[in-house]
Amino acid sequence: MARILILAPTAIAAITASRGSAIANLLTPDPKEVWADSASGSAATIDIDLGTSRAIDTVFLGYARAPAAAASWTISGGAASYTDSVIKPAGALRVPDRVGAAPTVSHALWHGTAANVRYIRLALTQPAGQPALMAGVVMAGQAFVPSFDKEWGAGRRIIDTGTKTSLPGGGFGTVEGARKGGYSWTLGDLTTAEVDALYDLALDRGETRPVLVVEDPAASTGLRNRIHYGTFDRFRSFERRDPKRSRWELGIEQWV
């Protein structure tokens, strides 16, 4: 099992697409504001300029609408151009879901060896005859991955934004809202350097800027449910267990 991953995205200086509409929507935090492709059966490219060369080891294309099982993507880029080298070879766009699931909304995630790049190109192919792709979020950067994985006791929760009122007759008055997930975990045995890096990340994101948390980024069954895009909602003060190690409890609420 891989270790938990936390990504505060690198700022994107410019973004363009070879086709489709509203590409700038990928840079807004709300995943309901989408880029919509205008065709299927051939590759659409999304070009990302970070403004300066930076190390990245994670790329996230979130909230892809109607991705076919055979939809694919590649990632290329470099310090000088969008085609310097292949960062991620062609592979499935949709991350693995639980057995038997066929989601209408999914994610694409790459996490691998860090590369120094300024320019990133995503090439997305939806098979012919399928609806054109849409996506709501794009993020790239170098993730925080601690030396030791989260402690036992991490877990998901369900958040319902609707309301429910008990009625005198024994039933309920309900107002439908959205159902979404949350996740809480504890990082133990953090080194001083890791505490400083996580502290900087938390100060940058706070509880209002989006962040990506992946329980385990391995491309294995159920990855879709292990991906959490949203905002931090819990920062328990870190505490020392010994002079060289720290423990910190965190939580995230998903944005849907």
Automatic annotation (TrEMBL):
This is F5/8 type C domain-containing protein. It comes from the Bacteria. Residues 1-24 form the signal peptide. Keywords: Signal.
